[in-house]
Structure formats: C-alpha cells, structure tokens
Amino acid sequence: MNVQREGSDGTVGKALDVLDRVAAYGRPVRFSEVLEESPFPKATLYRLLQTLTNQGMLTFDRTHNTYSPGMRLVRMAHAAWAQSSLAPVARQHLDDLSGLVGETVHLAQLDGAHVLYVDKRTPAAALPMYSDAGKVGPAYCTGVGKAMLAWLPKPELDRVLAQQSWHPFTDTTLTTPEALIAELAVIRAEGHAFDREEHERGIQCIAMPVLSPGGHVRGAVSVTSSVARGPLAQMERHLPHLTDAVTKIAGDLRDWRFPDKREG
Q: 102 burial class (0-12, 13-18, 19+ CB within 10 angstroms)?
C-alpha cells in the first residue's frame, strides 16, 4: 500500500495522515500494521489513533484489536459526496450515457494531484478494472486525468505534474512531463483524450472534461472498453453521446452549489 501525502499541518495533518492510512487498507487493520508504514513514533501513532477513535473517526474492535473507519467519518463522507461531488448532478446523465454506449462509464474529479473516481456505471458484461468509485488513480496516465489536466491553467498544471510518479504501468505509459505536455496540447485541440492502455493493459477509453462556462475544470467523464472489443479508433463513435453527456452535466452545474466560488 502506498499512501502519498503533500505534507502535514501540525497535529491535524498528522491525524489526517493516520486516518488516510487506516482507510486505505480497505479492511480492519492492526496497530502493528499501521506502525510498520507510519512515519510517526510508536507513542505518537498510538495517541493519534486514540484521539481519532474518541472522536468517532475510527472504531476499535477490542475482540480482534483492529481499527477501521468510524461512523462519524461515514456521515462526513456522505455529506461531502452530496455537497462537493459531481455525482448527484451527473447521475441521470451517466445512466443515459451508459445505456446508449453499452460500455463502462466513469465520472472523476481531480483530488490534489490525483484522480478520484466519484461514480461509475457498468454494462451487464462488466470488465474487471481498477477504477471503482471511491478509488484514487494517477492523473498522468488515465483518460479522465489527461482530459482534466489539458484544461488546467499553467501554474496549476505545473504543480500537479511535479507531483506525479511517472511510473511506467505499461509499455504505452507516458513517463515524462515533456511527453505528457505535448499530448495535452493535442487533447485540448481535439476536445477529448484517450487512454491507450496506459494505466492497465488491455483497457482503453475516450474521455472529455466537464467545464464551467468560464472554462474551469470541474471533472471528466469517460467511456471505457477493452482492446479485445475493437481498436481504439472505434471508441470515437461514442463521441456524440459523450459530448452530449458532459454538456448536460456542465449545464446542470450552473445551478449547483459548488465549493469553488470562481466565475462559472
């Protein structure tokens, strides 16, 4: 498990780091497991876990001596999903798009330097893939990630690119900022991005950004398929439906109370 951090802000930052690490396991976890990967001394880690448990952000199972996310955190997650995620606004449009294309559909937003999948639709014969709703993925080698990066202002793009790992997941992964920047220029000119098996071998997609009237990035939607179902060029047949979906989502966002108070 690799939990990346941009930095901690005192005690609050340390507590959030611990909370993230516990949640990232996806299962109840023992103190010794957290300690093994934690940057904090044993006494500090224990104190932080106790505080998080006392505040209801974690729960402690005394029978198995394990920690897991608490119900207070679940309530906060639901509130964040309803107020800050595009998912409630996009729900019907994702349903419609999925029905029209018969492929997996993803809705994503930028989470710092990463991609957060906030919703997903799967066809009857679903493909096994990494990108379930709630998971975080790399921005530099996913269709939704590249679709959003292409419309970021340069200072923000530079900051995000500086935090990418540039790990070669497959033979087609772009592994340098220069290569990605060149592709982002093409994406912006064409209006859509491709994932050419860059994150997962055998998985390809076409993606478009959800933009405000002022051109600010709000998220991205992708249609994802397998190379076994046809060449990448065939994915372009989904462009009319994908364009319609992101346009409708962007239109509905005009009346949405979005956290970003900038124009559009």
A: middle
Q: Does the domain spanning 10-76 belong to CATH 1.10.10.10?
A: yes
| CATH topology classification for 85-253 | Beta-Lactamase (3.30.450)
Q: Give the tens place of pLDDT for each residue, 27-66.
A: 999 999 999 999 999 999 999 999 999 999 999 999 999 9
Q: How far is 195 from 208, CA to CA, in rounded Å?
A: 11
Where do the structural domains in the chain lie, given as residue ranges?
10-76, 85-253
With a cut of 50, list the residues of the chain below it in pLDDT: 1-8, 257-263
Residue carrying structure tokens 């893939």: 129
CB 227 within 8 A of CB 204: yes
Tokens in use for 243?
Answer: 């364009």
CA-nearest of 146, 88, 145, 99 to 122 is: 99
Residue 246: other Cβ atoms inside 10 A: 25
pLDDT of residue 76: 80
182, 175 Cβ separation under 8 angstroms: no
- 3-state helix vs strand vs coil in the chain, percent to 5: 45, 20, 35
At 101, is the secondary structure helix, strand, or coil?
A: helix
